[in-house]
Each structure stands twice: as structure tokens, then as C-alpha cells.
Design brief:
- With 193 residues, the protein is mainly alpha-helical.
- It has two domains: 4-105 and 178-192, no CATH class; 107-173, no CATH class.
- The protein has eight helices and no strands.
- The longest helix is centred in the middle third of the chain and has 28 residues, at 76-103.
């Protein structure tokens, strides 16, 4: 007979596995909504990987419940569960590594995205963060919107990149916070297994 403490521990870890799968799946769906800033931070490939990971974790949850309710002498489902957990852990490590690697060059990566953004998207971000241009007022600043209303307004901004008048700091701040939270969540789900 399996001890009650062991079963309680298994049940708690299994609930966490279920929660990780649900959170991964739900956030991958919710974050697909049109949002200029979130779409810069998370690509469709990232969200698809999150969806696949969420589905894999939910399937693992079902396998784990099936494996544990078998009679004591039937151990093959537990062996299969162990292999599936190892596969999940490898998937989580790979996705977490991609997220972590992207955070190493945020300023350059988002400058490339800023350059590829449409004029309307840049104006929207400039209005949202009350900034003009990416690294400075001459770096792809768009005249228009409610903050960067004219070339004179942009020219009057301080030239120091550390000032909050340029978009690099708020964009990378949002991206850093979002990506670090995703990386931490992914890393914690590996540790639970």
C-alpha cells in the first residue's frame, strides 16, 4: 500500500503540472490578441511553442492520473510517465533557452523590430510611452500622434539616451519584464517535475 504522504505529494505535484499546462495554453491564446508591444516581444512562433508546451503538459497530466490509478503490479504506465516527463523537461529547457537567449540582445533586437514597424505602430508606441525615436530623437522618430507633434518638439528633447524621452528604455523594460517572467515560469515548471 502506498503511503498517504506520498500520494498527497504526488497529488500536489500533479495539480501543479495541470496548472502549468493550463497557464501555458491560456496565455499562449490570450497573448495572440492584437497588441503592438506584446506582438513585438512574442512572435507567433513563441506563442505556438507555448501552445504546444501547454498541450504536452496537459497530456502528461492525463497520463499521470492514468498511471497512478493502475493496480500496484502494473508499472508500465509509470515507466511511460517517466519518459513523458523527461520529454516535457527537455521541451521546457529548449523553450526556456530560446527565451533567455533572446534577452541577451534586447536593445539590438527591438531596434530591428522598431525599424520594421509601420509608421502608425511607431507613433502608437511613442504616444503610449511619451517618447520620440528609439535610441534618440533622430533614430526613426515619427512626427505625429499626441507626443511627437513636430520636428521642433523632437529636436528640443535632451540628447542623453538615459533620458526617458526615447523609446528604448520603456520598450526593453517591458520586454525584459515579460521575457524574464516567462523564463522564470518555464524554469520553475522544469523544477517541479
Amino acid at each position: 500500500m502506498v503511503s498517504k504522504a506520498l500520494m498527497a505529494s504526488w497529488a500536489a505535484l500533479d495539480v501543479l503540472l495541470l496548472a502549468a499546462g493550463v497557464v501555458s495554453l491560456v496565455l499562449s491564446i490570450v497573448w495572440r490578441a492584437p497588441n503592438i508591444l506584446m506582438n513585438m516581444v512574442l512572435s507567433d512562433a513563441d506563442l505556438t511553442a507555448g501552445t504546444i508546451l501547454g498541450i504536452a503538459l496537459l497530456i502528461t497530466f492525463v497520463i499521470s492520473v492514468t498511471a497512478i490509478i493502475q493496480r500496484n503490479h502494473v508499472t508500465m504506465p509509470l515507466v511511460i510517465l517517466n519518459y513523458v516527463l523527461v520529454a516535457d523537461a527537455i521541451g521546457v529547457v529548449i523553450i526556456g533557452t530560446f527565451v533567455w537567449f533572446y534577452t541577451l540582445r534586447e536593445r539590438a533586437n527591438f531596434h530591428d523590430m522598431w525599424r520594421l514597424a509601420t509608421r502608425d505602430e511607431r507613433i502608437s508606441l511613442q504616444d503610449q510611452f511619451r517618447c520620440c525615436g528609439y535610441f534618440n530623437g533622430t533614430d526613426l522618430a515619427e512626427v505625429g500622434g499626441s507626443f511627437c507633434t513636430s520636428l521642433e518638439v523632437i529636436a528640443a528633447l535632451p540628447k542623453d539616451e538615459l533620458e526617458t524621452n526615447f523609446c528604448v528604455k520603456p520598450i526593453t523594460g517591458f520586454a525584459d519584464s515579460t521575457l524574464n517572467n516567462i523564463f522564470t515560469t518555464v524554469r520553475l515548471s522544469v523544477q517541479r517535475h
